[in-house]
Amino acid sequence: MSTYVNANVEKEQKLSQYKGVLVFGEQKDGKILTVTYELLTRGRKLADDLGCELSCVLLGDEIDGLEEVVKRGADKVFFIKDAALKNFLPRPYSKAITKLCEELKPEVIVAAATTTGRTVMPLVAAMLDTGLTADCTELTVDADTRLLLQTRPAIGGNIMATIKTPDHRPQMATVRPKSAKPAAFDANRTGEVIVKKYEGATFFTPEKFLEYIKDTTQEVSIEEADIIVAGGKGMKNADGFKMVEELARILGAGVGATRDAVELGWTTYPHQIGLSGKTVAPKLYFAFGLSGKIQHLAGMQTSEVVVAVNKDPDAQIFKVADFGIVGDVFEVVPMMIEAFKNLKANA
Amino acid sequence: MNIVVLVKQVPGTDNVKMDPVTGVMIRSGKDTIINPLDENALAEAIAIKNSHENVKVTAVSMGPESAMKAIKEAIAMGADGGVLISGRAFAGSDTIATAKAIAAAIRKLGDVDLILCGERATDGETGQTGAMIAYYLGIPVATYVSAVEVKEGGVIVKRTVEGGFERVEIPFPVMVTVNKDINEPGFPTLKGKLKAKERAVPVYGPAELGLDPAELGLKGSPTRVVKVFSPKLSRDTIMKKADGTTGPVEEMMKFLAGKEAI
């Protein structure tokens, strides 16, 4: 009995050393990426609920505008500065973050579910021997236990699972980019910017970053787009699919597609949305001639407003739509194109 | 050169059935496939084997005994052999516990130069295990890879990242997780199927891998699923029927303006 009690006290003492919320901000070419400010929105809420400090860590060689991270909600900004951290490489990045975590002992770490966050966080979790929950859509704090409740879609979005990390610290999660609004700028906020230099061979790695090649084939990247116009098999052929592209052009939107549409060659893989493609969360999503298989829904159901047009009134897509029109896409979509053209002409 | 390909058995995604009461996926052993992105990883390994000399490809899977099917399929498609990690002690493993077990199995295989797997599986969708395995093996990792160029002593990979691509040079041994752009997976051959039937595949449990049961399964998993629920799929949908007039589209425009979506 007493051994059990002692073990519990020991565990609680160990866990209670961990304080504060840390978010992993991202930069490219020394410019802070917007996703950092989205993380500050998430982090600020958690820090307020836990009654603790919010810190943000950024890695790089030179970074502009670190003060802005304070103005948008961080109490402390840690800039780990090293020439080896200029471009993303998994080893040096994970070692640097782990080093800071060993010093800070944060209770919670939140990163973005970007290619960077989703690569570095598993390494950090393994180094710190703690849990990590990927791609969370919701993060809350249990008021009684102070535990982080991490909710994410599982099994292709068929179910939601809430996950916690009861006995390990830090509690770590990644959240989808675009799933929170960037934190607002407040010129009066104060905080600290701390430049960290870890000398020595800490960041030695056998990997060599060669180059970054910008993909110019995508006019509007669907992950960044505020509006997406997507089409499926119901567009019938490549010509039909052009309507999707036309409306997207008028709206300055990204073009999305189901796996079927990509496999039929109407558009290319970078446009594929769903389990085997990209996950998107735009403000507005148009779904034309697609039935809404779970695989597709998994990639778009967190869109803010969804408009669907489909012949079949029982199509799954209507379940996630805010506005649905039952009808032939070849009748309805041209009318929409007209309506948006007029709207633009009168704006 | 020794290549390991990780293949995960997942539900055939077009046939996922949910228990209407509990909202939990009904897993049936019959209706399973190799995780599609792992098939890309396998195809890449086989392509490397076909274009280089002295390449051996071993498929490794972790799962119930039925996951043997995934390994046999991998052999039918061109892998030389396989290993299955299986046992009750592994049940309920999260990504960390899974990575520890798989890393132990790879270590047991001896000198491995290149490990390939899909960047995520269609069931768990976490995309975490690949990187974690690399950590436990003490080797570098490259994720979201859409091209692998094997060179003397290492690889040059092309990673698909936000807005473009990165090229990174990494010496062996290295873990590479691939995306769909990398290739078009092939099909099993008759010769391969016959080979798969004959080839004995060892099954490793905790004892064979020298693992402490406390580090495995649910016990060895820092994360706990506390609640599972159905997502609120249905929104308060406004439904209109197309009637040949512009009425429904006009209403949609009003609706979008009201939502400040346009």
TrEMBL record, chain A:
Any one biological process term the GO annotation gives: fatty acid beta-oxidation using acyl-CoA dehydrogenase
Cofactor: FAD
UniProt cross-references to CDD domains, sorted A to Z: ETF_alpha (cd01715)
InterPro entries: DHS-like_NAD/FAD-binding_dom (IPR029035), ETF_a/b_N (IPR014730), ETF_a/FixB (IPR001308), ETF_alpha_N (IPR033947), ETF_asu_C (IPR014731), Rossmann-like_a/b/a_fold (IPR014729)
UniProt-annotated binding residues for FAD: 258-259, 272-276, 289-296, 310
Domain Electron transfer flavoprotein alpha/beta-subunit N-terminal intervals: 21-213
One term of GO molecular function: flavin adenine dinucleotide binding
Superkingdom in the source lineage: Bacteria
Cofactor: how and how many bound: Binds 1 FAD per dimer.
Keywords assigned: FAD, Flavoprotein
Pfam families reported for this sequence: ETF, ETF_alpha
UniProt keyword Flavoprotein present: yes
SUPFAM superfamilies: Adenine nucleotide alpha hydrolases-like, DHS-like NAD/FAD-binding domain
Keyword check for Cell membrane: no
Record family assignment: Belongs to the ETF alpha-subunit/FixB family.
UniProt name for this protein: Electron transfer flavoprotein, alpha subunit
Species name: Heliobacterium modesticaldum (strain ATCC 51547 / Ice1)
Gene: etfA
UniProtKB/TrEMBL annotation, chain B:
UniProt GO MF annotations: electron transfer activity
Ranges of residues in domain Electron transfer flavoprotein alpha/beta-subunit N-terminal: 22-213
Gene3D superfamilies: HUPs
Cofactor dependence: AMP
InterPro entries: ET-Flavoprotein_bsu_CS, ETF_a/b_N, ETF_b, ETF_beta_N, Rossmann-like_a/b/a_fold
Protein family per UniProt: Belongs to the ETF beta-subunit/FixA family.
UniProt name for this protein: Electron transfer flavoprotein small subunit
